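help with this.
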Amino acid sequence: MNELRYVYAVTRPFEGVLPEGVRGLDGEPPRLLHHDGLVAVVSPVPAEDFDEAPLKKHLENLDWLSGTARTHEAVVGALTTVTCPVPLRLATVCVDDSGVRRLLDAGRDRFVQTLERLEGRVEWGIKVYAEPDPEPEAEPAREPSEAPPAQAAAGAPTTGRDYLRQRLSRRRARESVWERADALSRRLHAELSLRAEAAALHRPQDARLSEASGQNILNAAYLVPRESSEEFVEEVGRLTPKDRGVRVELTGPWAPYSFAGQSGNPEQPARGETGR
């Protein structure tokens, strides 16, 4: 049976150790594999889970996928506290240590270029959500001859015209929330892009997967020098108005996932790519 290695990230050699308590997918601290001036951060993983056929099935299992992603991100996040990592794509797996060395050899120039570009930089994430008031539940229909309740709820429509007027008012209010969220998203992205070294727009998140309330309008990432992070966060606060129905979420600092595979730099290798 092949001995497989899960590769979380690539770094330069660094002093110090990972924070205590960091565990990889095998439940043990990740191992540092040094090779020709680079370091791959790895864990041994079982072939029955990470060989090609079982891994393909696992990647269709959201529970397994989210658990693996949390561990992957925890390891990369711990690396960020002691060095500058180039995060690799989720489920990057090589056959034994020699496969990891081949991966480093094949991508050496690109890894080095990216490490030079990302050194001392972190990623901040911004999400903007539109959160209009929910539609009230419709009242059960009554027969024409049925008398209305003795005491109608406050604000309840008493005629068909009132009902249509309220429906139109609620629809306009919801449209106004979406328009304000869109305008804020455009302004935030334009201003923050000027204060970052690079910016990346991601596809809005599906609320069914993220479980976040509201509709995601902006999902963006910004590459910022670590020493400028405080000013960047203050700028986000300055640009964010108090607006009922529009929510801004700031996350980070993260390892620069969104900027580790840009043009001219290492692509985040897919499983087995150059490492088999």
